[in-house]
Each structure stands twice: as structure tokens, then as C-alpha cells.
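STRUCTURE:
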């Protein structure tokens, strides 16, 4: 029984997406249903996600304010191990990691990484997004898109790309 309870509290990839959305909102007030609608996730899943994040110490007890220090530490040191990703085949999609803003202005690379997306205008190596609704959510929210692309750079990038992404992500989390 105790094992079952523990696995219910383990973080899931969508938890990171939800926390990044809260960071992207900055000082704006938000509700579970608005987060759910904007991310294409059910309200109950948002609620469960916030409970897991609270258990992990990534959000405060009110489940409204991201614990920036803990979240930043997890992203910098844990995301690549908890939710690893390796580039896949060439597909049509939406740019991510070093291929998307803001990193594509700093890093000039021949290889492109994309989230698979049938309506995408770019071709590149497939990177599985943290959650299946990320593309649609990113089309509606540029700030969220850039945060997700930075996280993907940490998940799949080379050492230089990871370091640049970490610095930019740290700056954005602190200023949120």
C-alpha cells in the first residue's frame, strides 16, 4: 500500500509543463481551469499535478507559487535524467531546443530539432515533447514556448548548448 502511494506522488512530464506555464504567467493571477484550458490538460490532471509538485517541494503549500530555487535546481540538474530525450528521425514539426528562440539567435547549428507536428513548417530531428499538448499550447503562448525550448536544450543539447540554456532559463525563472 505504501508503494502505491509513493508512485502516485512521482513527478510526471506534464508537471514540468504546468510549472513552466505558471512561470510564464509571471505575476498574473490564474485558476486551475484556465491553466487546464490553455495547456489542453484536464482540470483534474492539473490538480493532481500541483499535488505532485507540492509533494516534491516545487510549489508552495497553497499550490499557487512555484518554489523558484527548487524548480530551477531540478531543471538544471535533474530534468535530463528524469525525462531524457534523444533526437529521432527527420520529421515535419515545430522548432525546439537550440533550433528555437531564444537559443537560435545565439547558437548557429546545421542540425534542427523539432516537436513532431503535421502542420509544422520546419523539418528536423524529432524530439518528443514533455507532453502531447505542448505544440498547441506553445502556439498560443510565446513565453511558454521559449521556456519549453530551453528545457529541451537541457534535455537533448550538447554541453555548450546546455550551459547557455541553463543561464537563460535561470534568468527567466528569477525574473518571473
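SEQUENCE:
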Amino acid at each position: 500500500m505504501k508503494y502505491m502511494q509513493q508512485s502516485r506522488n512521482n513527478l510526471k512530464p506534464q508537471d514540468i509543463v504546468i510549472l513552466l506555464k505558471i512561470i510564464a504567467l509571471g505575476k498574473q493571477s490564474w485558476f486551475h481551469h484556465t491553466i487546464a484550458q490553455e495547456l489542453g490538460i484536464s482540470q483534474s490532471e492539473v490538480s493532481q499535478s500541483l499535488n505532485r509538485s507540492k509533494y516534491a517541494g516545487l510549489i508552495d503549500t497553497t499550490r499557487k507559487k512555484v518554489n523558484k530555487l527548487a524548480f530551477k535546481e531540478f531543471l538544471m540538474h535533474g530534468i535530463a535524467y528524469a525525462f531524457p530525450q534523444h533526437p529521432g528521425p527527420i520529421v515535419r514539426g515545430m522548432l525546439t531546443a537550440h533550433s528555437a528562440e531564444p537559443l537560435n539567435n545565439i547558437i548557429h547549428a546545421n542540425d534542427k530539432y523539432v516537436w513532431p507536428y503535421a502542420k509544422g513548417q520546419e523539418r528536423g530531428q524529432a524530439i518528443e515533447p514533455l507532453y502531447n499538448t505542448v505544440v498547441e499550447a506553445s502556439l498560443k503562448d510565446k513565453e511558454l514556448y521559449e521556456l519549453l525550448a530551453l528545457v529541451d536544450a537541457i534535455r537533448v543539447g550538447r554541453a555548450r548548448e546546455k550551459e547557455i540554456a541553463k543561464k537563460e532559463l535561470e534568468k527567466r525563472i528569477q525574473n518571473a
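REMARK: The chain has nine helices and three strands.
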